[in-house]
């Protein structure tokens, strides 16, 4: 489990771990797409130490906030996520 300092480091940095609010996560995905050129992303939500409600909320935010933001950002560059709608 991340402590607060670790969370802040990962949320702000260019590391592979996606941490932060939906806008931060979406921005990081878009930036990694720009730098690495990847068009697929596999996510794992830590369910070992989190209550189910927190895991479910994270998955909901990915679908309701993060994915639409990434799609919108990539649409302005002429790229797509490759994910079905």
Descriptive overview:
With 85 residues, this protein is mostly helical. Helices cover 56% and strands 0% of the residues. The longest helix has 24 residues, at 52-75.
Could you name the key traits of this structure?
85 residues; mainly alpha; 56% helix
Described by strand count, sense and barrel closure, the largest sheet is: none
CA distance, first residue to last residue: 33 Å
Query: Tally the helices: what do you get?
Result: 3
Determine the mean pLDDT.
85
Topology as a string of helices (H) and strands (E): HHH
Identify the overall geometry. globular
Number of strands: 0
In short:
With 85 residues, the protein is mainly α. Helix content is 56%, strand content 0%.
Can you lay out the helices and strands and say which pair or pack?
Blueprint: H1 4-12, H2 22-36, H3 52-75
């Amino acid at each position: 489990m991340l402590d607060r300092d670790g969370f802040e480091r990962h949320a702000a940095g260019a590391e592979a771990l996606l941490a932060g609010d939906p806008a931060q996560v979406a921005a990081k995905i878009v930036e990694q797409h720009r730098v690495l050129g990847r068009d697929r992303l596999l996510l794992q939500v830590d369910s070992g130490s989190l209550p189910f409600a927190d895991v479910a909320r994270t998955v909901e935010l990915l679908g309701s906030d993060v994915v639409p933001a990434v799609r919108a950002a990539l649409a302005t560059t002429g790229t797509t996520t490759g994910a079905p709608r």
